[in-house]
Design brief:
By secondary structure, this protein is α+β, with helices and mostly antiparallel strands. It is 29% helix and 27% strand. It folds into two domains: 82 residues, no CATH class; 59 residues. The chain contains two helices and eight strands.
């Protein structure tokens, strides 16, 4: 049965058995997990990192960004979790899914290249020197570069 609302629980470890309609959040391990909201029973794991999903708390409700696209599940469900509500999204074609995955890969590559450049720069600087703000692109620039890459493919 399709879910329209989720409760959430903060846990240290994600439980072995997930309960339907509960979003489990391990801040220590940067992970959220729930059973697919379509009711198929599949477990959905969302890493909470700079390049995957982000979690926002607002009072007693949670939001995950971006959407949950279960393209490798038989159900191929697609939904948003906004303010602890499940908002169902339309089906996506395989071409749209492939493009989204390409954007994700490009965004991650750009992000990690920037992190590595910043680390390399820091290792070359003396302790009193600081890197300029233009040495590594910020998240906006990373996303912009990923969108340009997607547009050109």
């Amino acid at each position: 049965m399709r879910k329209t609302d989720l409760s959430h629980q903060f846990v240290e470890f994600i439980p072995e058995q997930l309960e339907e309609g509960v979003l489990y959040i391990s801040q220590r391990y940067g992970t959220a997990a729930h059973k697919c909201c379509c009711g198929c029973g599949e477990e959905v794991i969302t890493p909470l990192t700079s390049t995957d999903w982000s979690l926002q708390m607002d009072g007693n409700v949670v939001t995950l960004y971006p959407s949950i696209g279960n393209w490798s599940f038989a159900c191929r469900s697609h939904y948003w979790i906004r303010r602890s509500k499940v908002i169902w999204a339309g089906q996506m074609s395989q071409q749209q899914i492939d493009r989204g995955r390409a954007i994700d890969r490009a965004t991650k590559q750009t992000y990690f290249e920037a992190v590595n450049r910043k680390k390399a720069l820091h290792s070359k600087l003396s302790p009193n020197e600081a890197p300029s703000r233009t040495e590594a692109p910020g998240l906006f620039n990373s996303l912009w570069m990923a969108l340009k890459h997607w547009w050109n493919t």
